[in-house]
Amino acid sequence: MSYxxxxxxxxxxxxxxSQAGELNVKALVFMPEVRDMCGADRCNKYNKNWRCPPxxxxxxxxxxxxxxxxFGILVQTIxxxxxxxxxxxxxxxSEKHKENFAALVxxxxxxxxxxxxxxxxxxxxxxxCSYPDAPCRHPDESISSMEAYGLWVSxxxxxxGIPYNNGPQTITFxxxxxxx
Length: 180
Known about the structure:
By secondary structure, the chain is of the alpha+beta class. It is built from 5 helices and 4 strands, in the order H-E-H-H-E-H-E-H-E. The chain has helices spanning 5-14, 32-39, 59-66, 87-111, 153-159; strands spanning 19-22, 71-80, 116-118, 170-179. The longest helix has 25 residues, at 87-111. It is globular and about 45 Å long. It starts with a helix and ends with a strand.
């Protein structure tokens, strides 16, 4: 399948993202070391959410899932912080990113039903995840993060020619869409 890269990037920017660009699919290296960082549980979601490790599947399953795709788009939302402890900006930038990401997933799914979206951070669709006591309440809407897939996001950005660090006093949230 052929994609209009410029149109997809424009669509992402029109959807509210700060930056967007073509994803270098060869940069998708699924690393157990990234999963090990998830295991350190700094975000307090490891083994507590259907879309985080270990519930989201093995690194081998993640790599196999993504191997079906030959094209992708990276998207970023950048927030300018007043100082390094500006948690209000971090939270508002995260929310803006998640909202724009979900809206573009919905739009792209109409044309590409087999899209594989990878978000930033854990799934937050439910106030409390049903894991492990009951099945996911929103299996068609919930999304794992790039890190949950085992991707080193800064490396993926670098190899795709998209900045990961956008300057001092900034926070950047990065996600991607893989298209069949």
